[in-house]
Amino acid sequence: MTIKVLHPGLSTTVQDLGRPGYFHLGIPVGGAMDRLAMRAANMLVGNDEGAACLEAVFIGPQLEFTAPARIAVTGAEMPIKLDGVEQPGWTALDVKAGQVLSFDYLKSGARIIIAVAGGIDVPLALGSRSTYPIGALGGFKGRAIAAGDELPVGAAASGKAGASVPEALRRKPGHPAELRVLPGLYWHRILPESQQSFFADQWKVAPEADRMGYRFRGGQALKFVEREQPFGAGSDPSNIVDSCYPYGSIQVPGGKEPIILHRDAVSGGGYFMVGTVISADMDLIGQLQPNMPTRFVEIDMDGALAARADRKALLQKIRAALA
Amino acid sequence: MTTRYSFGGDEHLFVECDEAMSLDAFFKSLSMTNAIRDASIKGVTEICPANASFQIKFDPDVIKPSDILKEVQGIESAAAKTEPVIKTRIIEIPVFYQDPWTHETLMRFRERHQDPTATDLEYAARVNGLADVDAFIKAHSGSPWFVSMVGFVAGLPFMYQMVERAKQLQVPKYLRPRTDTPKLTIGHGGCFSCIYSVRGAGGYQMFGITPMPIFDPEQSISYLRDFMVFFRPGDIVKFKPIGQDEYDHALGEVASGRFAPIIRDVTFDFRDFQKDMTGYNAKLEGALA
After folding, report:
1. Cβ <8 Å between B200 and A23
2. pTM (two decimals)
3. CA B201 to CA B215: how far, in whole Å?
4. Which A positions 235-264 lie with beta carbon below 8 A of chain B?
5. CB of A260 within 8 A of CB of B210?
6. Which of A47, A260, A271, B112 has a beta carbon 3.0–4.6 Å from A251's, enabling a disulfide?
7. What percent of chain A has pLDDT over 70?
8. What's the rounded Cα separation, in Å, for the pair A132 and A135?
């Protein structure tokens, strides 16, 4: 069976759990921004947790199903409609042949995940179905979906009709959003007063926020420790000799606006980084809208590992609730 | 050179071999990453060499961050004793300098440039104290370059010029990055040259364009059928200036599947190179003849 794209939304892409192993060649891991939401959506429809789904940002697509299907929509709060009738989120829904899935305006969060029993069956590219649009790699023809596309769906396993993720297990960013950051990398390049203000200030998500990176504004500019720039680094004090960029690392070009690198980020470059958002909080970034007030919260490695364990425990609870 | 270790969150170990770029720092990074690969440390999922640093991705559910740090620090002293000799290849990359496509693009983004009244090449010649654009092209294509990192976007090589530091071409990046760069543009920022593997944003100065694809997700280009990315760290590149006719001819050859890049296997000994760079480079380039 296929899904007909009537309207693609703003930017809707095929995503799974990503394409690890090619970062050293500049090919990012990619995959869903909000991994927890994606795993939950797949569990709801009886898929493997890493089956390919659609990820839509800010505006949902309009999709017509050519055959009966079981679907689930998780992630951001965006009213879900089947032939115009509102449906619950985070719940397995049965769709009849010819029905149209559509969405109303986004209420909170940023990205929805649409899972279909059987998964979106595009070919694997370097072991993943994730879309890497810059490299025209993976996904549906290496790009975001467009009106008129017919998306192939794989053979469905059995799932439980009407299953739903309990409200308490749906993880969302707070208000203001809090992102836990392990200082490091080139943290020593800024003055103690800036190390302090970085965590004390309230920031706001800037309009330049996508799968490559999230930019923030509103905090004080960072002041640098004076030095003679090392050979090859470039003349700005925020420049370094081009290095790898970890996922979640926070670069601050010119000391002005922090940018958190996300799933489709460039793999390296010449801007210093103040630290890295911990793995447990990467999902939350995918649900931030422009203008969302955000705080960076300092954490140490033990705290980061404890948060990682908490996220794993939450995932385990979702599995148990849907088993 | 002081090695500095730092964690990038709970999944990355960042190792800076030196703050400044040099071939010494690159070789230290290369020998350490090779030794780490050989050590097959449990929990290490990716090893990414960069110019003067590298990054290890690990799974903290398998190996504790403090343990991976100890393992890698243990490898540092062993790697220092490795002979700085690599088996690699030298590749001739044809370049149409001052081509119409990068020219059109650089004119579109003039207000983001340090010198809006000059072209990128004119500016690069001036800041390097060279008489004119021809002298700059001669210097750019006159010595080989070392691929010291592959990344930024898919398959993009960062290249470091194989000459004494005093002779290295250095050009600042654009004041503000462009939102567009033609595919296969030869760029330059700081001391690094690069080849933009795909069209997109970029902040490096633009000097010319190559007809030779270096990234092919379709894997239809004859020499990219086995793997979609052409470059790997340690490759040596020699640029060959070509004109519009040769460029057009090469494009036709690429389209018909007949284009075969000139590639020769070579052994590179860093110690011999340091003793006589000009002589050593001449020998390397001889392999292309």
Report:
1. no
2. 0.95
3. 17
4. 235, 239-244, 246-249
5. no
6. A271
7. 100
8. 6
